[in-house]
Amino acid sequence: MKKQQDFINGEVLVIDKPLGWTSFDVVKKIRYHLKHKLQVKKIKIGHAGTLDPLATGILVLCTGKKTKVIDGFMNEKKTYDGIIQLGATTPSFDLETEIDATFPVDINTEKVAIVAQQFLGEQLQEPPIFSAKRVKGKRAYEYARKGEKVELKKNKVIIDSITLELLEDNCLSFQVDCSKGTYIRSLARDIAKKLNTGGHLIKLRRTRSGNFALEQAISMEDCLKMIDTL
User: For residue 140, what pLDDT is reported?
Assistant: First the structure.
């Protein structure tokens, strides 16, 4: 049973982030409930690695003195699974924006297996323009939403393992183990390019973050109930 002092001294929460919520939405909601329940004006809380609004799964939060080790959690490897829709692209590389181009799709299981192997190891990855990367003091998505072009520096990422499976309707399911800073939306775009078509992410779930597995995560509803019983 969690106690009030646990959150003041420092606590780690593993949340299964709901679809449509930003990572900051989760932090803000839990911070509000903690402040109300603990009757404090301020409490430290932060998350260890952003998840896109259209992604679900593990979001690690730290409170109190545990916020000092957030960087350590952020640096740990992550595991994701999801689905890529081939044959069409969007500016955001996912369902946040409308389809802007369509492409023919000519793939088979053998091609998919060959392409998967090409993404193993260290590589440079270009982040999505619709991302929280800072460029000249602003978030990249702020430029993107205004239709302004901006050049994003490529990140060095590592893909430890990746599996791709061909589904119906020109979709690919995937599972990937990767380093911090890996944009799965960019990976979806790049996989589609290697298959000589376009593609965008239609489903994403983070199933592991460092030593935390999805089975350890609690829903937002259960987290707020737990806080109410402190």
Answer: 67
| Res. 150: pLDDT tops 80 | no
Sign of CA dihedral 27, 31, 32, 33: positive
pTM, entire model:
0.92
Residue 198 above 90 pLDDT? yes
Please determine, for residue 77, whether its predicted confidence score (pLDDT) is greater than 70.
Answer: yes
- Please indicate whether residue 52 is annotated as part of the active site: yes
- Please state which of the four CATH numbers 3.40.50.970, 3.40.50.2300, 3.30.2350.10, 3.50.50.60 is assigned to the domain occupying 4-75+211-228: 3.30.2350.10
Answer whether residue 133 shows pLDDT above 80.
Answer: no
Catalytic residue among 16, 25, 52, 106: 52
Overall average pLDDT of the 61-66 stretch:
92
Spatial distance between the Cα atoms of 50 and 116, rounded to a whole number of angstroms: 25
CA distances from 30 to 7, 23, 37, 45, 176 (A): 11, 11, 10, 9, 29
Distances, alpha carbon 149 to alpha carbons 76, 145, 190, 214, 219, in Å: 32, 10, 20, 37, 38
Flag whether pLDDT at 144 surpasses 70.
Answer: no
C-alpha distances out from residue 182 to 110, 150, 190, Å? 26, 19, 12
What are the distances in angstroms from CA 61 to CA 13, 158, 179?
A: 5, 24, 19
